[in-house]
Amino acid sequence: MPIEPLPSANIFFPNYFAHYFLQSLEAVMGKNGIAGALKAANLAHLINHYPLDNHERGFDTDDFSMLNAGLETLIGRRLGRGFARRAGRHMLENHFAAITNTQPIILTALQAVPLNIRLKLIMPRITQHIVGQQSASTTTIDDDGRYFVVNVEKCPVCWGRKANNSRGTGAYEPICAAIVGMYEGALYYISKGKKYRVLETACLAQGATHCRFQIEKKPFA
């Protein structure tokens, strides 16, 4: 059964962002899987008709949030968030230059810079294109030495949603797995295959004032 529509955010982000996320979700779920998720999210009109790959601001934040909720409705919270994370990672690993609007010559030049400096230089750009321009909100990046800490005032993944007890522990967990995957994919791409731990430590859906993402600066693999 489709979920109830969320209140309209009236915050629009570029079509290409939704285009590549849906393509990536199809890559990890298959056509039948994404069709089921779109139906569950009351977005059946997008089946085989993804937004165009352009910079027009035509995709509403509440639709992106509904899509992520639809995944959880279709296959459960743990699996739904798992696929959202995999799709986010696939999206940035395979379409980094297009999504971050970074010219190939800049990417080539960055490869000559030591990795720790490279990450410090590129993190603001990654964050701007993953959550900054999409959420039309205040987004900050702090560097505490060991971690980059990203705070997002209005998150497109959890807009209008409430975290639920997904493990029966009484813990209402952060739900923005797609953003976690996007950071993982972006860092994998920019580091040429290294893996970084990314953790959402606070979520608007939990009642927090921001979604907060903690990104370790040193790769674990």
Shape: globular
User: DSSP strand (E) fraction?
Assistant: 5-15%
Q: What's the CATH C level?
A: Alpha Beta
Biggest β-sheet: strands ordered side by side in the sheet:
3-4-6-5
Distance between the termini: 41 Å
Q: Please tally the β strands and state the result.
A: 6
Q: Rg from C-alpha positions? A: 17 Å
Ranges where pLDDT stays below 50 over 5 or more residues in a row are: none
The CATH architecture assignment turns out to be Alpha-Beta Complex
* Number of helices, where a helix is a run of at least 4 consecutive DSSP H or I residues: 7
| CATH topology name | H-NOX domain
Number of domains: 1
Question: Can you walk through the features of this model?
Answer:
By secondary structure, this protein is an alpha+beta fold. The strands form two sheets. It has a four-stranded antiparallel sheet with strand order 3-4-6-5, with helices on one face. It has a two-stranded antiparallel ribbon with strand order 1-2. It contains seven helices and six strands; from the N terminus they run E-H-H-E-H-H-H-H-E-E-H-E-E. It has one domain: H-NOX domain.
List keywords for this structure.
four-stranded antiparallel β-sheet, globular, 7 helices, H-NOX domain
